[in-house]
Design goal:
The complex is a heterodimer of chains A (271) and B (318).
Chain A (H helix, E strand, L loop, with lengths): L4 H18 L1 H4 L31 H37 L1 H15 L3 H9 L6 H28 L2 H9 L3 H37 L11 H8 L11 H28 L5
Helix pairs in contact in A: 1-3, 1-10, 3-4, 3-6, 3-8, 3-9, 4-6, 5-6, 6-8, 8-9, 8-10, 9-10
Chain B lengths: L1 H28 L7 H6 L5 H11 L5 H13 L13 H36 L4 H15 L2 H15 L15 H7 L1 H27 L2 H9 L3 H38 L5 H10 L3 H28 L2 H4 L3
Helix pairs in contact in B: 1-13, 5-6, 5-9, 5-11, 6-9, 7-9, 7-11, 9-11, 10-11, 11-12, 11-13, 12-13
Classes of the chains: A mainly alpha (271), B mainly alpha (318).
Amino acid sequence: MRIPIAALIGLIFTFAYFFVAIFAPWIAPYSMAEVVSRDVWLPPSSEFLLGTDNLGRDLLSRMIYGGRTTIFIATAATILSFTTGSILGFLAAVLGGWADQAMSRFVDLIMSIPSLIFALVVLSVMPVTVPVLIVVMGLLDSTRVYRLARAVAVDINVMDYVEAAKLRGEGRGWIIFREILPNALSPLIAEMGLRFIFMVLFVSTLSFLGLGVQPPQADWGGIVKENADGIVYGIGAALYPAVAIATLAISVNLVADWILNRTTSLKGGRG
Amino acid sequence: MSLLLKLLAQRIALGLLLLFLVSILIFAGTIILPGDVAQQILGQSATPEALANLRRDLGLNDPPLQRYFSWLGGLLQGDLGTSLTSGKDIAESIGKRLGNTLFLAFWAAIISVPLAILLGLIAVRYRERWPDKLISAVTLASISVPEFLIAYVAIFFVSVRLRWAPSVTTINDGMSLGEKLHTISLPISVLTLVVLAHMMRMTRAAILNVMQSAYIETAELKGLRMFTIIWKHAFPNSIAPVVNVVMLNLAYLVVGVVVIEVVFTYPGMGQFLVDHVSKRDIPVVQACGLIFAAVYIGLNMVADIVSIVANPRLRHPK
């Protein structure tokens, strides 16, 4: 199996980011919130590899811990979104009738509001904590997964082997988990990369707006916000996390593209 | 004709129904959530009197259904309620900001729409060659990049290093159109970049779809030049899908504007909304949320209406 060069680069970067996120406490030279210098926005030096931030904390350490927070929230929200979305989507496809209608119309309704706006409305009354962010983002995004899962499952549900299982007298649980799920997995996994990127951008945007992860906890969007004032003095500290978000997103995108191409070519385009 | 009118009426009715349901959803989103809203707003240290006062001001003592209908009744008469934090009339504060936001979105649209269509045509003309590949690469990059990154990179280089355009974009009535446009030139460019990639890619897909039809092959076999084929045969047939693409992206623009306004401290609706979410000023958040949703639903509806009207099969019923 040959991996195209773009996908390989994507894979390497993605793994690197996840590795750093998991082992952040061992990699970061300083702790997350420790003020290490009396000078703010120091330029990069051998002591502080990316310089210091707006409060004199080590920017590299903030970046590493920030990546951990961002990647953790995005991963958790993606998992929640996929579990909820695909189970409900499969259920809708298998049940059909009014249950399918009710769920699908409700999803249409949620999707008729831009998710950022809806998230802002909900966050205006909720305490802004990490679990709340994960649940709000995951549930809002599960609508998209629902649509995909339902569409895929509707196709699979009319296959002969599903008919055979039904005639054998298998229950709905069997049909969903033993017949539909294994066959729907590859399009869902390809979509997972894109949803993960969306989550990274979503949580970063919320934190950037001051409505996501709360200081002193670091996350990439929040670091941009904290250091944004430096930009007008020509200090680029806010650009590092922004670039990190962009490179992570592009890398995952490259990998997802490759998986998508592979699964569709293997399955003769049906995917 | 009657079929066309029927379809249009159906689509408009659906839009109105959607708007009504969305108003319920936005209202419900701020009340059915667990916990005491008054406590959330005032924090743990609030005195019982303050809590009771706020609950009365928010109308939390009335049943939810009654509150919803009095809110909806006010909306229909243009009364958006009063702000909790400033005590001002919300409709009055929003009116001007909505105008500013639309002003920004309008100019971004004026620039990005023709540019996206032109670049989409170029991508189709040089399909699979370097201009097309370059355009795809840029698209991939710009989908993966958060809006605020583009904005800050632009501020960093264009406004701080080169000093070509201001980074703080406060506009007021005293300014001439030229001054206003210069002030907001940076946010306009950033918004343009944000929507351009999507619009370009979808335009390319729409035109390519048409290019695979039989009549295009006929034109090619007649020996027509490539640009004539695109301009005379492919383009008229792709107007409906392209307009659809444009409308969907304008709807996207309305959301992108929220982040851009915060970056550039532009006095628009988006900044107003974000500001009042952190102040937990629920009536303002509900009003802004509903207006954003209404614009979004409206643009989606226009997109559908255009594709209904532009479909010749519906204009000539058998």
